[in-house]
Each structure stands twice: as C-alpha cells, then as structure tokens.
Amino acid sequence: MNTPIRDFAARYAESGISRLHMPGHKGRGPLGCEALDITEVAGADALYEAAGIIAESEENAARLFGTRRTLYSTEGSSQCIRAMLRLALAARRPGRGRPVALAARNAHKAFLYAAALCDFDVEWLWPGAGSASLCACPVSASALAARLDAMDAMDDKPFCVYVTSPDYLGGQLDIAALAAACRARGVPLLVDNAHGAYLKFLPEAAHPMELGADMCCDSAHKTLPVLTGGAYLHISKRADPCFAGAAKRAMALFGSTSPSYLVLQSLDCANAALAGDWPARLAACRGRVDALKETLRGRGFDVMRTEPMKLTLRTDGPRAAALLRAEGVECEYADGEHVVLMVSPDSAPEDFRRVAAALTAPLPYSPRPYSPPRLARALSIREAMFAPDELVPAREAVGRVCAAPTVSCPPAVPIAVSGEVITEEATAAFTRFGISEISVVRNA
Fold first, then answer.
1. Integer angstrom CA distances of residue 320 from 301, 311, 324, 329, 336
2. pTM of this structure
C-alpha cells in the first residue's frame, strides 16, 4: 500500500526549497523531525478539504478497515467523538423536544464536552449490580432494547446510542448484539473504540465496523504504530449515507486549522504497516501476552478477562506499579484495585520478562464494590459547563451543582456530570479516586 503523504513530505524535505512559509523552524531544529514538519504548501493537500494526497491516504485506510469512509484526526479521538455526535445529531428528525443521547455512564469526558458544545441532553445506561470500577459499564442488548422501547413510548427517542468498548480496563461489550437492538429501532450506534483500533486486524471479527456499529472512533496512537494524536473517525457502509457526506465539515468544526503533518504522515505510514506484516506480528504478540497471563495466573494473580492486548490485574495497583517501575516497566494505569498494562507488536521480548520478574506473588488488596452515584440534574450539561464556576474542596461540594467534570486522566471518566447536584455519596467517590477539588457552578 502506498504512502502518499509521507512520500510528498520526504520529497519536500530533500528539495532544498526556501521555506518562506510556516512553520517558523524552516525545516531545521534540535528534534531532527523538523524537515518533515510542513504546512498546507502546494501539493500537500488540506485535511478538511482533502482532494489530493490526504484523500488518497484516507481512502487507503477506509479499504483497510472496510468502511464507507475513514477520516484522519491529528487531535485524538476527542475530535472524532465530537464530530460523530454532531453528525448523528444533524440527522435527527426535526420537530421533537430537546435532543437526547442514550449513553453508557463510563463515557470519557470528551463525550460531555461534545454534549456541551452541541447542546444535547443525556440519558444514562447504568452498570448492573456488582460492577466494581469507575471505568466499566456492562450493557446487555436486552437492557438496551427495553430502555429504547421505554423512551420511544414516552416520545423521547434518542438520536443515538453511545457506548465505550473496550473500556479502560479492557472490558468489551457485545457490540453485534447492541447494534442489532439499535438497528431494529432505527437508532444509530456510536462506539468509543479509542482503545481498540487493532481489533480489525485479529483473525476473528472484533472491530465495531465489522460488528454493526454505525460510527466509531479509534485512537490509532493507543494501539497502532502511530504518533500521539493520530486517530480515525470510521463511518460504516451500513450507516446513513448523510454521515459520510457531512463528515469533513463536522471534523473541521472541532479541529485546528493547523493539523500536524507529522501525525498525518504517521497515519499514512501505518496503512503500509497494517497492509504488510503487522497483523502477523500482532498474532505473535498475542501469543506472548497469553503466555504471560497464564504465568501470572499460575502465580495466583487475578487476571481479568480483557481484550487481547491488555493485561489487567485485580490487585493493589499502586504497589504493583511500584514493583514494575523498579524493574524498568511503566504501567498504563493503576488504582487501588487494578493495574493495567498495554502491549503491542512493538513491545520487546524484554518487556515481558521484566513484568514476569516484577510480579512474583499476589499482592493483597481489599475489593471495594463501586456503583456510580445516581445524581439529580439541576442544569443541562451546556448550561453548567458554560456557567461561571469556582473550585471548592470536594468535602464542601455537597449540594452544589457540578460545572466542568473534575476527573483524573487516565481514565477521564466523570463521577459527577456537569449539571448534576453533588451528594455525600459523590464526595465519598471523589475521595476514593483521589479527587480533592471540584468545579461547581457559582451561586447556582
């Protein structure tokens, strides 16, 4: 598969042309990549009016992922989340009340920012009893179907269903079953697949575009050989054709007019890798991950069932992270009950040996059941997020209205959503997850 963006940038770097245009480094600098860092010069195409090398590269990606259209983002999945929600909202039938999305409660804060910017309300799908993580929200197809039917009976049909899969711990939903429930009721399914771009390249069907979702975002940089910020917005061949037609405009609405050509080149080069030996390398890596999981299970560790490229242990996360760091390993995420490791085909054999050397025996921890607090809504998300706000100590926030969601990143999953009234239960959750200050609406 060709790499038109990378090839153009390489030719431009070698041309010796006088760069009397942005950026100011003029192709020279201490990082060594400046010569390839260009702007929309003649022949370089333009991301949001793509008709040349960028359009060609995006078409390559669409063929790889089997989509109607795949668009590049240089600003991560956050830009794609906002764009796909805007697309679904624009296709909503006019003449009804305020628009509402039906979303799983473990949504990333980027979803809330999209709700504020696009001005829609959210009804939440809640995890069942026994869910023990802020990051997870198991949703069954039967529960989703019942909720959609109930909303339709109240003339409150959502303009989309929005779920996160895989979640931050690696848990996966039955996307095929959820998609069937949505399709039977004429509601598009949108998936935050930020952690699952690689799923397309497994032997079994595992990517949302294969399983029936209408649109999804992939953070290419999380699991593929792509620079930080590289992401995809995928639009399915099953989806309303209007989504593909308006997609560039939606992306432009939320994107910088100065997208990174270094990130675009990285996405472009990834096409060649994914069309080459990368899937075979992924299969080999999967085998190494499975072997490491079995080793740790044999030592008594509680290894969670996850998507293949995550290793998630139920354990004393901070202590496990310290042991790993002492062996030269930095984990992705750790909390009081989990530690998460992310691997890829570019992980070295030494990485696996270091993990095995660090984690020799189970670490005691105290499981603490967690259910997200169900809080009353006083303001819309948009009203609360754009209202004058102030930071207050979490212990003093009871009775106040949440303004901007105050969360750690990772995992960037809010405990209280903008517009909700904070309760004692919520402040206890803030303390549990190390959140000491809360943004609240001033004088609400």
1. 11, 13, 6, 11, 10
2. 0.96
Contact 420, 372 (CB under 8 A): no
Number of CB atoms found within 10 A of residue 410's CB: 14
Tens of pLDDT, residue by residue over 202-259, are 999 999 999 999 999 999 999 999 999 999 999 999 999 999 999 999 999 999 999 9
Helix (H) or strand (E) holding 160: strand 160-164
State the architecture of 4-275 in CATH terms: 3-Layer(aba) Sandwich (3.40)
Topology, domain 381-441: Molybdopterin biosynthesis moea protein, domain 2 (3.90.105)
Contacting residues for 103 by C-beta, under 8 A, at least 6 apart: 111, 122, 123, 124, 125, 161, 162, 163
Report CA 65 to chain centroid distance, whole Å: 17
Which CATH topology does 278-358 take?
Aspartate Aminotransferase, domain 1 (3.90.1150)
Buried b (16+ CB within 10 A) or exposed e, 335-345: bbbbbbbbbbb
117/78 Cα distance (integer angstroms): 13
Determine which helix (DSSP H) or strand (DSSP E) holds 243, and give its type and residue range: helix 241-254
Distance CA 49, CA 281 (A): 35
State pLDDT tens for residues 67-96.
999 999 999 999 999 999 999 999 998 767
Cis peptide before 208 (omega within 30 of 0): no
Tokens at 319, concatenated: 């202590």
- Comparing CA positions, the residue from 324, 291, 289 lying closest to residue 307 is 289
